[in-house]
Specification:
alpha+beta, Alpha-D-Glucose-1,6-Bisphosphate, Chain A, domain 4, 3 helices, 6 strands
């Protein structure tokens, strides 16, 4: 949760091209179609760059963004933003599968590592988002 208004959070997340400026782990974002389709390269604690395209398929400003991933990951993702008393909760639902044969082969054993890396990158995103907005990151719970 962020001590910030939803609209400010929305526009910062919506501006994917600038993610590398504040979101550790986002190596680069290439705009394939403005406000619609992006190629995003990520790197976390595991020394492997993961790249996939993300196409925005549904927007409900400033509440929800939904899209489809293709490339090294395939599936769907959705941001949902909730605001109460100037505090915004950001939820990200990510339902993807890897498309690389070696990742799929290692998946059953490496799943905890993949999950850990995803959690690390999302934590970095929350911390960077708070810094970008000049607000506090509030721990949930």
């Amino acid at each position: 949760m962020l001590d910030a208004e939803r609209q400010a959070v929305w526009w910062t997340l919506r501006d994917a091209e600038r993610w590398p400026e504040w979101w550790r782990g986002v190596e680069r974002v290439t705009v394939l179609a403005p406000d619609e389709r992006y190629r995003i390269a990520w790197r976390s604690r595991v020394p492997y760059e993961l790249e996939f395209d993300f196409e925005v398929i549904d927007l409900d400003e400033p509440r929800s963004m939904r899209g489809v991933a293709s490339g090294e990951l395939a599936g769907t993702g959705q941001w949902r933003l909730f605001e109460q008393d100037g505090v915004t909760a950001v939820l990200y639902e990510w339902n993807v599968e890897t498309t690389k044969a070696w990742m799929n082969f290692l998946g059953p054993v490496a799943r905890p590592v993949f999950d850990y890396n995803h959690d690390v990158v999302m934590r970095w995103g929350g911390e960077g988002l708070a810094r970008r907005l000049g607000c506090r990151l509030i721990a949930a719970g």
